[in-house]
Amino acid sequence: MTHTLHRIGDVESLKEDYIVQLITSKQIKNRSIRSSSIERFKFTTMFGGFAEKLLKRYPTLRKGIEKALLNYSLGPQIIRKIQDSALKFVMFHLTVFNNEKEFTAYITRLMERNLGPSVVVSGLFDNVYKCLGRAGIHPHTVQFSLGIFGRVDRLPREEILQITTMCGHHLISAGLTTKLFNDVKKGKITPERAAAIMGKQCICGAFNEKRAARVIRANTA
Predict the structure, then answer these.
(1) Domain end: 134, 167, 192, which one?
(2) How far apart (Å, rounded) are the C-alpha atoms in residues 167 and 3?
(3) Does 85 or 8 have the greater pLDDT score?
């Protein structure tokens, strides 16, 4: 199950929003899964903790490092958490793309390098299937979002939900989003600055800042 499954918006908005997740976990003790890419990214507990805090604080730096690692064949994994004391090594990578060309190229490189982790992609079905076809693959499993049920009248406005649902862990609140919308309307900040503030709340990196800026601009003009 992916936390990026329930993004809200119309086709025009979502057709420029693609998410790719890679997750690998293993027991260090028995080393049942081996990967040269993983071995090259073993950190000590202390350095791993420092790196994790740094990457959380600067998500743009994190995304840049991730893409650079992939381009240099060192693997697209970024260490999410290292706990040698618990004998568990967990690596997590998530990145967002704003167009089909970049998304297709990324998936193609992943297939060519066959690094081993599970790959989950999110996006509009027609667009994703088309991109996967270009990469010469087809989905192993497909999940659908059936929408929202219950007291939907108590939910925030749709333009607010377009923002908050881009963080599947709901770390971007409707209150913060509403405030930043108002700040943009008053000319206090730009849509891009508002999107950057929102993006810092989403520690997993699923938030699409470019799409958020477009949504904000369209609803504050």
Answers:
(1) 134
(2) 8
(3) 8
Cβ neighbours of residue 146 closer than 8 Å, sequence gap 6 or more: none
- Calpha distance 35→114 (Å, rounded): 10
pTM (two decimals): 0.71
Among the ranges 72-76, 120-124, 136-140, 180-184, which has the highest mean pLDDT value? Answer: 180-184
Structure tokens at 96: 């967002």
Cα separation, 210 vs 15, whole angstroms: 13
Same domain, residue pair 163 and 210: yes
How far is residue 133 from each of residues 49, 129, 130, 136, 139, measured CA to CA in Å? 39, 6, 5, 5, 10
Question: What does the alpha-carbon distance between residue 164 and residue 8 come to, in Å, rounded to a whole number?
Answer: 9
The pLDDT > 90 percentage for the chain reads 44
